Amino acid sequence: MTEEARTTSRQSIILAGALSLFVFAVYYVSNPQPGAYYDYTLRIASVMLDGKLGLETQPPDWLNEMIPHDGKYYSAFPLGSVLTMMPLAVLQKLHLIKEFPGTFLAALLAALTTLLGFLLTSHYSDNPWRRSLLALFPALATWMWPNLAFAGAWHIALGVAVTAQLAALYFTLVNPYPFWAGFFFALAFGNRTEILLLAPVIFYLLYKTCQEKQETPPSLLNIADRFVAAPMALGVATLLYNYARFGSPFDFGYARIPGVLEEPWYQHGIFSIYAIKGNIQAMLLETWNRVPEFPHLVPTGFGGSILLSCPFLVLLFRHGTTDAKLIWLAWGAIAVLTLVLWLHGNPGGWQISYRYAMVLLPWMLVILSQNSPKKVTPLEILLFLLSVTINAFSTWLFLRTNYINAFYQ
After folding, report:
1. Does 74 reside within a domain?
2. N or C terminus of the chain with fewer C-beta within 10 Å?
3. C-alpha distance across the termini of the chain, in Å
4. What global pTM score does this model have?
């Protein structure tokens, strides 16, 4: 490596670190609440360290999604989400932490998302301004900010799914390592099960990158062995976990949440084609509400077009790419995930914009990295700043005002 290359590498490391620290700080101060209330997954991880799968005492009333069954209380979160909390459960057992550090976790995940976004864009650009803008896009210019910063167990699971997908894509497209690509892919679908459907896309891209980048690429079977190790282990463990709790490997427990099937959006089941219309409305068509007092326009609190939340997304439809096949595969991944999200009866409950669409952001970043010009354009800067402003306002309204309480009065 030449001295110039080493200097450029050092500058990139410093810039990536600075951007990540900045995002961490922004998220950490976004939510003045401790973020310790909705700790479903940490509670289950903690009792698992004692050899139990559920709580033996009734949880607080605000944890109303715990599942009473055979004298115990279980979580509807998949095993992957619980295992993600195991390091924190160990720290809790050692009395190094007392409560679920939701706010800290949200800030850490946002910082890691920014760092991984910066690393991923190295495959497409060496322009520091371009890489910085794209790296900051998921965490600050989208609905991810107000939703992840809320810092409940649901939001943390989504944040882990976003971060882990970016890590899997980095070890797939930039620095191909089959085991680590599979490990982070498992971490992603362990927190959001629908991501499992993207296994063929990830594996194809991994195989293609290994063939292109490595002087002596491993065989297809060798790549597959290393890639599937972690996903297979987690998949089998999840089926056993479900069976041990509910007597069926395919029963994740969601339908067992007290009263959930009585809710109007589940009248046709947890997943139904009848849910598509409501999800399309929540994700793409829902506008903000007009109110007579300041600030005059506010999000509904139960959805909102992701295009209104992030005008920067219009650049997804820009022409021009160095790898058309990758663009189409990314759009295919977005289509598969979106269809599953649209089939889910509940569009997401209380949220800013459509929080489930956070899982699409890694693939949107791939598309934006591919179709962007070498230098940042004035239009991109304008759309980026507008998107950041919208989500900064939403975060302030959502987390630092009485908006939630006033809505329910």
Report:
1. no
2. C
3. 63
4. 0.95
